[in-house]
Amino acid sequence: MTKTILRALNGEVLPTPPIWMMRQAGRYLPEYRATRAQAGDFLSLCYNPELAAEVTLQPIRRYGFDAAILFADILLLPQALGADLWFSTGEGPRLSTITDMAGVQALKPVGAIHDTLSPIYETVRILARELPGETTLIGFAGAPWTVATYMVAGRGTPDQAPAHLLKDTDRPAFQALIDRITEGTIEYLSMQVQAGAEVIKLFDSWAGSLKGQDFTDFAVKPAATIIAALKARHPGLPIIAFPREGGEGYIGFARATGADCVAIDNSVTPEWAAEHVQVTGCVQGNLAPHHMVEGGPALDDAARRVVKAFGKGPHIFNLGHGITPEANPDNVQRMIDVVREGAA
Ligand code: CP3
Fold first, then answer.
1. What does the UniProt function comment say about this protein (predicted)?
2. What's the pTM?
3. Which pLDDT value is given to residue 343?
4. Where are the domains of the chain?
5. Any ligand 1 atom below 6 A from CB of 25
6. At the top level of CATH, which class does the domain 4-341 belong to?
7. Could you give the residue numbers annotated as active site?
């Protein structure tokens, strides 16, 4: 029997939505913290295929999610393209910055990325072997705009101002950067699929800061290019796009990019997304992650509301963004019970 997530991505309306969770392998789980301590730091964990496969499997063993997402990070591609990357504790990622055309030209050619990324493909191969037969394996990358925001600023920023500045003052350099990331992403994801990833997700976490024509040029167009190239190479490959906080940009996003499913964040209501986004196909989302910290009756109510709002069309249950380190693992189980059994 076809896996539930693949059925939903194919447009089927299931009696119970399949479920997985963004950042489901992460610091809220004691077993993740233990394996991470064994690996040393976060990047060593990403590049250690046995341990990265182990942390990918941990939430599957504990909760029986319908999908496993490869354990890696969207910033490994910039590193493979030649950026320096490190994670300073408590402060998030740091990278060398790109501020002009010379910086873009100094990046490595796209063909060189596999030298750095080959351990990730090995993680995928291990997972394809070890996952339970009913669990779908999701590979992923960052979308070009989001990856570019980190490469230009050298860090996460609240408003992505450095990337906006480069975009608005040196369009050729910014476009060259977007193009290089787009090409690298196609090669990276294609190798994940060859290694055994069954579904691909593109994370555009900062899509919401692109307005008007910029949204079309830097959220829609690069996603459409990547999706078309992947589908040409891997016919039938299902792809989930996540233009986070895209607002009105969510409307028609699937059609404009060729994505099979659009992941919805929790800045919009599930009723709005059902009416305006689910009409064109499968959606994923969108329980607010704070419920995984707080739990209680509000969690039950909010989870039921998401299931009900999306119940008439194809739907994959998920959070609206990644689970946070403060989350209580018991609340995750409660969410699953409510979604799968309507738990009273
Ligand atoms: O979802 C999963 O379980 C799969 C693995 C995964 C990670 N990052 C592991 C991770 C995925 C899919 C990502 C995507 C990612 N990484 C995004 C897009 C999704 C989103 O959350 O918006 C972004 C923007 C990044 C970049 C990144 N990586 C940041 C900003 C940080 C630091 C912030 C933080 O949460 O600490 C990371 C680190 C990171 N990536 C962790 C994990 C489990 C925490 C690192 C640790 O163990 O210390």
1. Catalyzes the decarboxylation of four acetate groups of uroporphyrinogen-III to yield coproporphyrinogen-III.
2. 0.97
3. 62
4. 4-341
5. yes
6. alpha beta
7. 23, 27, 36, 73, 150
